[in-house]
Amino acid sequence: MTDRPWSNQQLRRLGESLRDGVRTPANTPTYDQVALWYLDRTIEIQERIRALDWSSLLDPSTVRVSSRVKTITTLVDKLRRNPKVALQTIRDIAGVRLEADMSLTKQTAVCETLSGVFSEDCAVVITDMRTDDHFGYRAMHLELRHPGQGWRAEIQVRTDLQGKWANLYEVAGDVLGRGIRYSATSPDQPEHAIVQTLQRLSTESVASVEAEDDQATSQEVRVEDIRRGLIPGNLGAEERKLESLRATAEPVRLALSDQLESLTAELQRIRNSKG
Fold this sequence. Notes:
Blueprint: H1 8-20, H2 31-50, E1 64-69, H3 72-81, E2 94-100, H4 104-118, E3 123-128, E4 140-145, E5 152-159, H5 160-176, H6 192-227, H7 235-273
Parallel strand pairs: 2-5
Antiparallel strand pairs: 1-2, 3-4, 4-5
């Protein structure tokens, strides 16, 4: 991957000027220049991911890969929330996202696959945010740290349900205020109940459905292995166990779908009431 054309000191000066709302010093790039360079990196990362053959792990038709570079508004917000953070150390200026219909076990395997690919020329740090959530946000992230000047990029790996929840929370941030992404609301705030419901929806309902799906996926593999004679077992009993797991998960999944639709409608109502 390409070396970054600016020094840490140049990027630090740019970050400080953006944070403080002052003129960018001489011999310092503009954020437009930095964003365009990082955009090229996201395209490189995205193309490498899309070139991978996922057929042994996932249904390729469900794999969606997208990318973005932080807008200057989002970046300035972050720098002002964290005034001691230097621009060059921000890991998600360049962000790539992979979402797919996958179990938690397969999500882990996807991250391990990506780590193997990118560790050829980057240091890779995997962060599991599925049990240690961030205000309800659940996913797995890979931070890529390029040697030398040390530029960073982030790959977010999310299941379909994690992605649907995150998109809904983004809508909530647009309607209720983006501050809900970074701090807890107090009970006297009008948006508190919705935010709390959204966060519980992720940490309880979505997490529960995904755990049950993971069990069912593991059981499907076991049934198939028994059917093919790869492992011993009572095929009939294992098939009944699989059907039981599916039957238990279905009403929970339907209830979750109803909750997502209800919250979507409520946020739309609030948006409309604000004109």
